[in-house]
Every structure is written in structure tokens, then in C-alpha cells.
Amino acid sequence: MDFVGNHILSVGQFQRSDVNRIFSVADRMRPYAMRKRITRVLEGAIVSNMFFEPSTRTRVSFGSAFNLLGGEVRETTEVKASSLTKGESLYDTARVLSGYSDVIVMRHPEAGSVAEFAAASRVPVINGGDGPNEHPSQALLDLYTMREELRAQDRSLDHLRIALIGDLRYGRAVHSLCKLLCLYDDIHIHFISPPELEIPEEISLQLRNHGHQVTQFHRLEAGIHGVDILYVTRTQEERFPSQDEADKYRGLFRLNESIYTQHCEPNTVIMHPLPRDSRAQAQELDEDLNQNPNLAIFRQTDNGVLVRMALFALVLNVVEEVDNHAKPVTWFTAKRNLAEKM
Amino acid sequence: MDFVGNHILSVGQFQRSDVNRIFSVADRMRPYAMRKRITRVLEGAIVSNMFFEPSTRTRVSFGSAFNLLGGEVRETTEVKASSLTKGESLYDTARVLSGYSDVIVMRHPEAGSVAEFAAASRVPVINGGDGPNEHPSQALLDLYTMREELRAQDRSLDHLRIALIGDLRYGRAVHSLCKLLCLYDDIHIHFISPPELEIPEEISLQLRNHGHQVTQFHRLEAGIHGVDILYVTRTQEERFPSQDEADKYRGLFRLNESIYTQHCEPNTVIMHPLPRDSRAQAQELDEDLNQNPNLAIFRQTDNGVLVRMALFALVLNVVEEVDNHAKPVTWFTAKRNLAEKM
Amino acid sequence: MDFVGNHILSVGQFQRSDVNRIFSVADRMRPYAMRKRITRVLEGAIVSNMFFEPSTRTRVSFGSAFNLLGGEVRETTEVKASSLTKGESLYDTARVLSGYSDVIVMRHPEAGSVAEFAAASRVPVINGGDGPNEHPSQALLDLYTMREELRAQDRSLDHLRIALIGDLRYGRAVHSLCKLLCLYDDIHIHFISPPELEIPEEISLQLRNHGHQVTQFHRLEAGIHGVDILYVTRTQEERFPSQDEADKYRGLFRLNESIYTQHCEPNTVIMHPLPRDSRAQAQELDEDLNQNPNLAIFRQTDNGVLVRMALFALVLNVVEEVDNHAKPVTWFTAKRNLAEKM
């Protein structure tokens, strides 16, 4: 695809070459995200961060990514703070806001709303999550992290063996990730979920049609051996018809150090789209894994900044200019970088 | 008036020469708002955007305007996020915040509150709307848009023929606009509203005293012919004594393409202070007009950025410095500018 | 202590030399806070302002301080806007956010939460208030203000005579201030409170152990003579077991111009951590004192910016670089500085 001036709405937009392009730009963002140097390439540019659904991680990650490129962030964080409560259409909001901004990131609880908004916008729109539907930057940062983690083991995304664990029915991160995996060759996928929360049949079928090996499991221990990556997810409680319904599944699958050691291959990478639910009754990913060097969950969120910087740089067409606006870092960063080497 | 260091609280502050001054500065802001170039003239300056009432449009517009001049924005968006809930007076809040900021924009639900706040502030305060009372930057951007739209037809604000439509009783945008129209000559005004929501008598009288022609209508079709501009407003539901009372008037007047074509002169400009209420039962300005080239509602909001940049530049006394801090734009802007030419 | 790369969690961290260091850096920040010139030393750096409890003053003060050093602010203002509502631990939030930020300011309603958060952060964390526990930047700005006010009278913090007035039981500002006063010599302290809201015995004891003179009073007039500084506080209603309980104490002690003139020495400085409760039934510090030149409450909040700039500069190790990134101010500031001379 041509990124310049275009919207990022769905992982379905991408060919393998597009994903490669995003990842190679993300690589080039690393010195800035690690504060080896700063860049001012987007000095004077404004992103509108429109979050009509609660979010800390995604919102701050996009905002920081834009700041790291030198741009400014204008933010809206609640439906009730918005003209939408006065009956304004997404069309109007988009036309108006695109007059104030150079690029817009939008999260909204309704599937399809971001695409509707983008159709009326005069500047590029990046989907920050539209309800149960899509969250493309999450899928990209997940895949980018897999590539990085495998590369450290001299392997590539082709021939990847991965277990996807938890609420596979409502988890949009998993759905988007599966679509991206269809761009690669010979993937072995273990779907591990309660019977009622299995991956939708159409996604499973799509993967098989691409020649991937798909196996279903209903017990955690049964599916976590013989894979390179464990991708654990929380129960998407807010997508369930009722809290009672959601409560049934909370705490059903719990990965901890003991189960990991007993069942996984050495160096099996542990991922999670976060937030993980650390309340006693949930704990799908136990905190006793926090010191495990294969726990990649914080490398994932760090990578999120790289991928989001890449998306901004691509749609605003400044990739080749980033380094031309570089400057040295003035402040203390030693502990951050120490931590990143861990 | 002398703008430097002074508050912008009411349209009543302005002489015709003041409005001309604001508009000529707004004209000079256009290349920056259109991202032809950037300026860093307010680098290091801070605006406090204090919004004690929900707002997206006005808040983001002021914030973006300040960013476009190179300054930083600190924002407060809810009464409950504020010390006001702990019994702090506006006097104290103003004294404190003016120590953190170089200029303050304030919206507050109570009439007169912004003036009270400004009296204690050590830095210029711009009224972003104080309840039913004033919203001077809205009136200015409306009038600026009228001047621009008429100029495209080789006409000026003098001798303007305008229809003001909808809730004329509670609409502060209409009230402020009427006060500004008193600065011009020979205006013909059609007030079109339900009998219960007529323009307050004092405003009508004020216009007549300036020699303007005022006519009242209670039917939409009766009043929209023979004018240059239709200024449509929504019912200000939040200002009504009750929701039931407000519901009576919703959807009473609906301008759409068919009525427009049948009753208006060609090139009659359509304006609206936004948000327009696009819910089925309201629709005071139908979306079937969205492709009509005379629909100026998004040019209005775009102009809002120019006018707000002008206000900041004037009160902070940097008008003559703006171009001296200009730099080229690094990023892709072609689609934005294409849209602006539409 | 070594400031570089370290957290600021409690006043208990500081030796007298540390406080002196902070104050001497704060002094050097004055030209920037007064807009005599700007600095860009933290250009490209990002602070995450995490406020899980309502705050205007502290939040905007930290944000503005960071902006004044040239850095960018990413902000989160409500618990419900956060992943914490999805069961995320402070550990996870800290690890994630420290990947987006160069320094984090955090306010949280629970005592100890900020320290827990800081333990997992890879970047310095500054405590912006953790419930009833600590609020170190407030204590520092209070003490800095005392030093400044006394210096204008050619005196120093040693041998200070101070009256602390109001809710001494729940007021964390008072508690932290008392700990700092233990770093100085020969302090005379009058604690003035209702019997039920006396200063905790351990704090009183700590002061006595440092050789300070401590006297308790239950009547305002009895304790306000013979001191250099009156430090008035509001009832910390949100810390009381019930509103009824809190209501008992509201309005019990009220300092006004008449009481001040009758009982205080000339030039007795009046301070208050703000917000003061100006509702008719409270008014612990009457607005009729607003013109009294000894009312230092707004000099206090102005000083807050200096102290917070100093903390940022120290933990990020840019103190010696600040002046090297200075530029002239472009905009009108005359009224601000006039006010500051008052």
C-alpha cells in the first residue's frame, strides 16, 4: 500500500511487504525511543488523540510516539467531554477536527466507527481500537515483538509455532494478529481456550486456507509445549453480554513459573497484549514470572512506541527526514537503557 | 482597544477598527494554519486551557491555535478535577494559575464567571464561553467567515442581508453576533424562530437603533429568501428549564437541500456555529446539504483557528514577530490543502 | 543524596544539604519561571503526569515546570481512564509507562502506592501526593517560601518561630513540613488545632527530640502572637471517616484581617498550602486579607514552579545545562512581572 496521506484502519490493508516496511521504519526509530538522540522532524505538527473509550497504554503510547518525533498532542478522553453528546455526527466531528490536526488517532467503542470517521477526515486517521473490531497498531507491535524475539534466536516469522491462550472469542488483539499471520508461511498455531470462548470459525478457516496448521485445546497444559511463543490474553470482560457470564471464565487458565518450567521448551517467549489482570481471582499470567528473561510483555509495550512512531512517519511521509532533524540528548538516561538491556 | 496584555471577555469591548485589526491578523495566520509553513514565535509560552464545561471543538481549536504559534498547552477539563470542588474561589484559582501560564482560556457554565476570574489573573484571559452569556471568539469567527464568504462574491459586511434561524432566545452565539453586527452599516436581519424562542427584545432594539432593518418570522420558508447568509442554530437544550420544554422545539425548523433550492437565492451561504444536531428528531441542518458548495460550516471551524491564533498573537504582542520565526513544513499536507480548496 | 536518576518519594530522603541543593537550583530557575528568558534544555523529554486523584494546582504546576524546561507533558487524570480498572497492578503500569516517559509524576489516593510504583519504574518517579502519606514537593515549596520570606527580613530558617493552624491530624502538608523542620535548629512551633485534630504525637515527639520548642493551643488567638509565620490549613474533609465528622470542624478557626492586626506581630507572614476553602461556612483564611502584603499564599504557588523545575533538573541531571539552552522571550510579560513585584 501507499502509506503517504492514507488511513491505517485495519490489518487487512497490509501485504507482507507493507508489514516489512513498517518494521524496517520501526527499527530506525529505536535510537530515538531509547533516548540515544532526539529528533524534531515533526516540529509544528499536531496529532489529535481522540479516545472515546478509557485507555492509558494506547493513548500515552501514541502521544509519546508523536512527541518523540517532535510533534504536539491535543487530546480528548471522554465521550461526555465531546460534542457527540449534543448529537453531532462522526462526519461533522471528523471534518472539524481534521481542520485542527495533521493526523488523528481515534479509539471508539463501536465497530466501524473509526472507518466512518476517517471517510470524512481530511488528514490521515489511525485506528486506536474500534470496539470488538480492530486494533491494528496492537497487532503490528505484537508481530514486531515476535520478529525481534525470534531474531534473537536466529529465527524468522516463517515456520513460527505459537500458542494463543485465553478468551479467543472476544479478543480483538488475537483476531488481528491471526490475520497478520496469514502473510507468513507455515505457521503452527495452538488455540487454547474454554470451549465457549474458542476462536471464531472464520479465522480458523482463514489460517488453514493459508496452509497453516491449526490445533484446538481446552486445557492450558495440553497446548503450551512445542511452541516458540505463548501469547496469553485476559478475559475481555467488557465485551461479554453480562458480568456474570464473564466471571465464569476468569481465572480458568493461569500460566505461572511452575507450569512454564514443567511444560514449555527453554526460551519459549511469553507475551500478553496487556493489561494483564493481576487480581487474585484472575492472574492469567502470574507475577512469579516477572523475573523470567523470556517474559517479553514489557519489551512488547516498548516496541509499541517504535511501531507507532513508524506509522506516523509513514503516513506523514517523513521517514527519510527523521535523521536530518536529530539532536543529542541532554539528560540522564543510563538506568532506562540498563533496564532495556535486561 | 489596546490588545496587548489585556483580556478578551466580551464582543462589547470591540470597535469596528478592533475587529478589522483581528481579521487582518487572522489573514496573516492562514499560511500557518494551512501548514504552508510553521512558526515558533511562542516557543516556551504556556496557555492554560481551563474548561469547566464539556467542549471538544472550542477547546481543541484554542489548543491547536496555540500549538501552531509554537506554544505549549496545559489543560483542565472538568469541574471535579479542580480545586473548585474544595471550595476554592475563582479569585484564588486565577491568581494561582496565572503564575503557571502566559495566557489563560476559560470556559465556565456561569455567566460572568470568566470576567470575575480575569479580574484576579496576572496574565491575559480569553473567554471561551461563560454559560448563556458570551463566547466572543465564536462571534468573531462567524463574522470573519461572513466577510470571507462575501469577499468571494466581491461584497463586504456593510449592507449584509442575513437570516438567523432557530433558538434565538438562548443562543449566545447569535446574541454576540448581533452585537458585532452593530459595528457595521445597513444590515438586514431576518429573525426566524418559534414564537417562544424569539430574539430578546433588547437585542432587537439595539440593532434597530443602529439603523438596521429587523424582521421577525415564525416559519422557516417565510424568512430564508432574499438574504446572503443563513445562520442556522441548534436548540440550546442545556439552557432550557427542563428537557421536556426543550423537546418541544427540537426538529421544528429543518433546512435541507430541497427547501434551500426552492427558497434561497443562488450562492446563499449556509452557516452554523456547530455542533449541529444530526439525530433523526432534530436535524436543523440536514446532511443532504453536505456537498452543497455554499455550506460554509467547516470553513467556519477552520477559520476559528485563524481567529484564535490572531487573539493570542495580539494579546501576547507577537504579531510582527510571527514571520520572523517561520520554518518550512516537513510533512505531507497535500490532501488537507486539496480539501481546503473545495 | 544523589539526585541523578533517583526517585523523590518522601521528605525523609533529604539531609539539610539536599534541601539546600534543591533551593539553590530553584533560585537559578527564577528567570525562566518569571519569563525573563526561556530554556529548551529538556527539548525532546517527556514527563508522564499520572494523577489518579483530582488535582489542578499540583498537576498544572508540575506540567508547566516541565514545559518551562522545554519538555513535553503526557497526562492521565482519572482512575477510570486507566488500565488499573482492568485489574492491572502498579508494577505493570510502572514498567509500561516508564517505557514511554523520561520521568513520571504520580498522585494516588493510597499511602505507599507511589513508592510501590516507583520500585518498578525504569525512570525517576516524583511523588505528587500519595493519599494521607506524603507530598514532598509541597513541603519543599513551603519551606522554600519560608526561606524567601525570612530572607527579605534578613533572617534564616534557623530560629524560626511558626504557628501551624487547623486540621493538624490529617494534613499531610503539615506532617511533611514538620519533618523538614527537623533539619534546622532551634525552631519554635505553635500547634493550633481543635483537641480532636491535634498533631500526631510521634511528629510532636520527633520535633522535641531535635531540640525544637513545641506548644499546643486550642484557640486561634492564643497561639498566633510571637511568631514569624502563620501556616493556615483547611480541614482535610476527604480524609475524614464521614462528612458529618468533617463538618464539625469547618469554620472553627478563621483568620481574618482584624484578628491578624490585633494579635500578630507586624510582618508576620501568612501562608496556606491551598486550596483555601472560601465557602461562607469555612473561610479559614478570610479574603479580607487578600491585599495584606504579608499574605504569601500566591508567592507560595509561584515558588512551587521553581521547586518542581529544580526537582526535574536534578533527577534528570541538567542543572548545569539549563543556561546553555536559554533563549530570549518573544512575548509580552510586563503585567506578570509587575504583579510579582507586589
Percent of residues in β-strands of chain A: 5-15%
Number of helices of chain A: 12
The number of distinct β-strands of chain A equals 11
**What coarse outline of chain A follows from CA principal-axis ratios?**
globular
Output the structural class of chain A.
Answer: alpha/beta
Summarize it.
Chain A has 342 residues and is of the alpha/beta class.
Please tell me about this protein's structure:
- 3 copies of one chain form a homotrimer.
- With 342 residues, the first copy, chain A, is of the alpha/beta class.
- Chain A folds into 2 domains: 11-134 and 303-333, Rossmann fold (3-Layer(aba) Sandwich), CATH 3.40.50.1370; 137-298, Aspartate/ornithine carbamoyltransferase (Rossmann fold).
- Chain A contains 12 helices and 11 strands.
- Chain A has helices spanning 16-33, 57-68, 90-97, 113-120, 136-151, 172-181, 201-209, 220-223, 243-247, 257-263, 297-315, 334-341; strands at 37-39, 46-51, 72-76, 103-108, 125-130, 161-165, 188-192, 213-217, 229-232, 269-271, 326-328.
- A 5-stranded parallel beta sheet of chain A has the order 8-7-6-9-10. Chain A has a 4-stranded parallel beta sheet with strand order 3-2-4-5, sandwiched between helices.
- The mean pLDDT of chain A is 93.
- Chains B and C meet through strand 3 and helix 3 of B and helix 2, strand 3, helix 11 and helix 12 of C.
Topology of helices and strands:
The structure is a homotrimer of 342-residue chains.
Chain A: H1 16-33, E1 37-39, E2 46-51, H2 57-68, E3 72-76, H3 90-97, E4 103-108, H4 113-120, E5 125-130, H5 136-151, E6 161-165, H6 172-181, E7 188-192, H7 201-209, E8 213-217, H8 220-223, E9 229-232, H9 243-247, H10 257-263, E10 269-271, H11 297-315, E11 326-328, H12 334-341
Parallel strand pairs in A: 2-3, 2-4, 4-5, 6-7, 6-9, 7-8, 9-10
Antiparallel strand pairs in A: 1-11
